[in-house]
Amino acid sequence: MHEELLQKMARARDAAYGTLGRMEADVLTFILNPTFNGGPRWPSLRQAWRVIHRPGGMLLASDGLSDPFDDQDGPSMGFGIECILETDEPLPRVQDSWPFQALVQVCQTAAGHGGLRQLLDEMKLVSVELSGEGMPDSLVTADDSVGVLLGMGSSTLPTLIQTPAGDVHLVTVKLLLAEELEYVRQNGAKGRAELARRFARNGEEHLSRARRAPVI
């Protein structure tokens, strides 16, 4: 029963991701599942990411946060989210790139928290901090952190993925420059909202770049 539900969710995600661009057939994953090294557990254990090419850039999207929980009977959409990051910076080897490493950190944070969907439903926009290890200098603060804005609005990406178990939220991942993270630290929710407004105004929206001017 669980395997059948798992396949239905996978087909629904693939159908949705396939509308966003040219999706690579192979998924990105790890030889050893991070859960076995003490990392957070995803709903059906499997952890994977999809690469989607579109004109002028690339989408990286999680594939498994909305899998059905393997310890529950009946339909389930796991954590009810998938995370997606878009960049127009060249990525010769995606799995070694900073955008992919940032997305992996976000996904592991979401899996460890377990309630990100509910938090976004309440707050609309959430910021988290990641490790700065291996990240471009422009993103890293003096205390070795990188900021991310989750739930930034987009005019080119859907907010929901329709699945047999319900609507999964597609959460945009926007990397912040170091100055922008400091602005969020100082201003909280108002700072997040102001950054989102400025990103929308200058046309950047959810796009993640390490080489750009700060908006504050």
From TrEMBL:
InterPro entries: SUFU_N. It comes from the Bacteria. This is Suppressor of fused domain protein. It comes from Hyalangium rubrum.
